[in-house]
Design a protein that fits this description.
single chain, alpha/beta, seven-stranded mixed β-sheet, 14 helices, 17 strands
Length: about 400
C-alpha cells in the first residue's frame, strides 16, 4: 500500500483526532525508521519516549517471536508466569519498600490505578497535582492533568477532587495539602509541559510534606522512567522514595503496558474486584518488559544515555542563536525552548527535510527523546542539522 492510499483510508475511516505529519513508516532498525518508499529517517522521537531499544533489537525480537508462538494472552483469573517474572524484576530496580505491581495497558491507566488506590488507602478525597503537568486523557487522569487545553473541551470534569500547585513552588504545595489530601502527584521532569525540571529542594520538600500530612507521594515516571534520564527512575537523582510509581512508555519498548508500583501496605487495600484489566499484564507484554530490563542491564544502556546526553547537552548549550531561549532536561529527555511557536515549528520542519525526526511540545519547545541506544555518532549527525536549522 502506497502513502496516498494510507492517507486516503486514514482520512476517510479514522477519527481525525491527531495532527499527523505527511509520512507513514514501513519498518525500523536501530535508531532509524524507513518510510513506505524506503527513505531513511534518524529518529529522535522514539514513539514519544516509547521505543527504548530502538527498532528490531535482535534479542527483543527473538523473545517476542518465542512468546507469540507460546502464549499471547491468558486471563488474570489465573496465575500468569510472565507477569510474576516482571513484577520480581521491577522490585529489583526500585527502592526496597516498593515491592508490589499491578499491570494495565498505558500510562493513563497506570495513573488511574494510582489515584484509585490512593483514595481507597487513605480514605481521603482530594488530589494535588501540578499546573502544566500531564498524567493522561482518561477521566481521572485528565483531572490530574493541570492544563486547560486538555480539560476545557470536557468540562464539567467527572471529578472535582483536584487542586493544582505551581511547579517548583513548595509553598503552593503546602497551601493546598490538608488532612483531606489523598495524594500529591508530580513529575520530576514535566515532559508534555515543556521539559521543565524539578529542583532537588522541591522534590525533597514534597516528600516531607507528604510524610508529615499522611498524603501519598505519587511520582509519574511514565515518560521519565526505565532509563530515560540515565537512571532507571528520575526520582533516583534526588534521593527520595515515593509511595507510588507509575510507569509505561519505555517499559516494554513498544508493547502496550502500564504499571503501578507501590508498597506491600498500600497494595493490601486493593482486594479482588477493586481494580482490574482484561489485557493488563498479559504474557506478551510482560515478556517484552522483562526483555527490556534484561537488555538495559546487559548492554549497559544507561551508561550510554549518560555519556551521550552529557555531550549532547553541552553541544546544545554552546549554540549561539537568538532563536534559542533555553536548553534543559536530563538524559535523553531534552527540551530546547525556542523564541516562538513558529520558530519551533520551522525547526521541526527543517529537521524533517534532513530526514531527522523531532517533536515539539508545549508550543515552542523542541523535545529530543531518542531511543536509549542513540550513539555519539548519531548525536553528531543530529547536531549538524540542528545547528543549521536554528541559524
Amino acid at each position: 500500500m502506497d502513502f496516498e492510499t494510507v492517507k486516503e483510508n486514514s482520512d476517510t475511516y479514522l477519527f481525525q483526532n491527531y495532527g499527523r505529519a505527511e509520512i507513514a513508516f514501513d519498518h525500523g532498525e536501530g535508531s532509524y525508521l524507513y518510510d513506505l518508499e524506503g527513505n531513511k529517517y534518524l529518529d529522535a522521537v522514539s514513539g514519544i519516549a516509547v521505543c527504548s531499544l530502538g527498532y528490531s533489537h535482535p534479542e527483543w525480537v527473538k523473545v517476542m517471536r518465542d512468546q507469540i508462538a507460546h502464549l499471547v494472552h491468558v486471563s488474570n483469573l489465573y496465575y500468569v508466569k510472565e507477569q510474576a517474572q516482571l513484577a520480581q524484576k521491577l522490585s529489583l530496580i526500585t527502592p526496597d519498600s516498593i515491592t508490589r505491581s499491578i499491570f494495565v495497558n498505558s500510562g493513563a491507566e497506570a495513573n488511574e490505578a494510582a489515584l484509585k488506590t490512593a483514595v481507597k488507602y487513605t480514605g481521603r478525597e482530594k488530589v494535588v497535582s501540578a499546573f502544566n503537568g500531564f498524567h493522561g486523557r482518561t477521566s481521572a487522569s485528565l483531572g490530574a492533568t493541570g492544563q486547560a487545553k486538555y480539560q476545557d473541551p470536557f468540562r464539567p470534569l467527572i471529578s472535582n477532587a483536584y487542586q493544582y500547585y505551581t511547579y517548583n513552588d513548595l509553598e503552593s504545595v503546602k497551601d493546598l495539602v490538608t488532612r483531606n489530601t489523598a495524594a500529591v502527584m508530580l513529575e520530576c521532569i514535566q515532559g508534555e509541559g515543556g521539559v521543565n525540571c524539578a529542583t532537588p529542594e522541591f522534590i525533597r520538600g514534597v516528600r516531607d510534606i507528604c510524610s508529615d500530612s499522611g498524603a501519598l507521594m505519587i511520582v509519574d515516571e511514565v515518560q521519565t522512567g526505565m532509563g530515560r534520564t540515565g537512571r532507571y527512575w528520575s526520582f533516583d537523582h534526588f534521593g527520595v522514595v515515593p509511595d507510588m510509581i507509575t510507569s509505561a512508555k519505555g517499559l516494554a519498548a513498544g508493547m502496550p503496558i502500564g504499571a503501578l508500583l507501590t508498597t506491600d501496605e498500600i497494595a493490601k487495600c486493593m482486594t479482588p474486584g477493586t481494580h482490574g484489566s482484561t489485557f493488563g499484564g498479559n504474557p506478551m507484554v510482560c515478556a517484552s518488559a522483562c526483555a527490556v530490563i534484561d537488555i538495559l542491564a546487559r548492554e549497559k544502556i544507561l551508561d550510554n544515555v549518560v555519556d551521550v546526553s552529557e555531550s549532547w547537552m553541552a553541544d546544545l548549550k554552546a549554540i549561539k542563536s537568538d532563536k534559542i531561549v533555553d536548553v534543559r532536561g536530563k538524559g535523553f529527555l531534552i527540551g530546547v525552548e525556542m523564541d516562538s511557536n513558529e520558530t519551533a515549528a520551522a525547526v521541526k520542519e527543517a529537521m524533517f527535510k534532513e530526514n531527522i525526526l523531532v517533536n515539539v511540545c508545549h508550543g515552542k519547545v523542541v523535545r529530543i527523546i531518542p531511543p536509549l541506544i542513540f550513539t555519539m555518532e548519531q548525536k553528531n549527525v543530529f547536531m549538524k542539522a540542528f545547528c543549521a536549522a536554528v541559524q
